[in-house]
Amino acid sequence: MHRSSHKLSCEELAYFIPLNVQLSPYSSRNIHKIGLLVSNLKLRRTCSSQNLFEPVNKELINSSQNLIEPVTEKLISSSQYLNHPSQKGSRQSSIYQKFAPAENYSFLQSSSLQHWFKNWQEQRKQKLTASTFSGAIGFWPRRRAQLWLEKLGAIEPFSGNLATCWSNIKEEEALERYKLITGNTVAFPEFQVYGKMNPEDSWLAASPDGLVDTCTYGLSPRGVLEIKCPFFGGDMSKAFPWKRIPLYCIPQAQGLMEIMDRDWMDFYVWTPKGSSLFRIYRDVEYWDALRLALSDFWWKHVQPAKEICSKYVITDPLRELKSLRPASRHELCGYIVYESKRIVDNSSLLMREINGRLITDSNE
């Protein structure tokens, strides 16, 4: 495999500094839009992978090690509960506190804030899905241990926060804009499990936003659609469409193309002020390295620990299964980060619009 020698820009490095939002004390009986809550938010930095919906500005960090360091040591997911049987009705082990939420907001589970057609939470629990690939290999070091605990059933899997709810309620609008711009017809597939030809790979799965079959000259008709609706920490004054794909999106993108057996992806970013459309192509060498790292996480850490849990009463996986707890990063993580940079460099920005006006280098 060819190792990219490209340097990482300040903007790309900043993509790895996540933003999490928490509510200040606030109550409301009838919340319909996340926008109503924005003025009541407190912003806090964290390394939760589900909060990485947009780049943020930070000073330059000069190495791949620093690139994927978290900003704090807490992992906060707004609806994740510690759910190990030994913890119910008793004191929670202090070591789990860094994986448990500071607060829970029940309104996030409202049906009006859920995805309009993806209702696959139960199916996702027993699989490693494309949206978790970056975390599983160590783009955010503490996310690996959190994901491991989720797959063991020691803590509840991530089920949503303000950023994901914003994406859920805006994605249908974004889809209509994408279809208007491209003229493409989009099909909506079911939850897809990998490994139809090889059942040993059935632990991998994906839930794409859409499939695109188009007859464009020089382009394979088999494409997949990924839609992003960045939350920008609730500050819509900063809601401008991305100029570049964040590196952490590439494992998910390549995973979707492989699992769905598609040759290219339309990566569409929607904001209230405009949108941008990127084209990414399937990369077999990248997937080979990514699959190896994912396979190690699943077969060396998740499955052996699950087998022990099925035979014995395990009350503290972090202590009792310490030998099976994954390291903060897979040994291939640095390589995959740099190869993600190569793929981003080779992607195409097909279109960027702000307030209905096409933006080019000359008029930006």
TrEMBL record:
Keyword terms: Endonuclease, Hydrolase, Nuclease
Cell membrane recorded as keyword: no
CDD domains (alphabetical): PDDEXK_lambda_exonuclease-like
SUPFAM superfamilies found in the cross-reference section: Restriction endonuclease-like (SSF52980)
Key word ATP-binding present: no
InterPro entries cross-referenced by the UniProt entry: NF-kappa-B_Signaling_Reg, PDDEXK-like_dom_sf, Restrct_endonuc-II-like, YqaJ_viral_recombinase
Example of a GO MF term: endonuclease activity
GO biological process, one term: DNA repair
Residue ranges of every copy of the YqaJ viral recombinase domain listed in the record: 119-258
PANTHER family assigned: EXONUCLEASE, PHAGE-TYPE/RECB, C-TERMINAL DOMAIN-CONTAINING PROTEIN, RESTRICTION ENDONUCLEASE, TYPE II-LIKE SUPERFAMILY PROTEIN
UniProt name for this protein: Restriction endonuclease type II-like protein
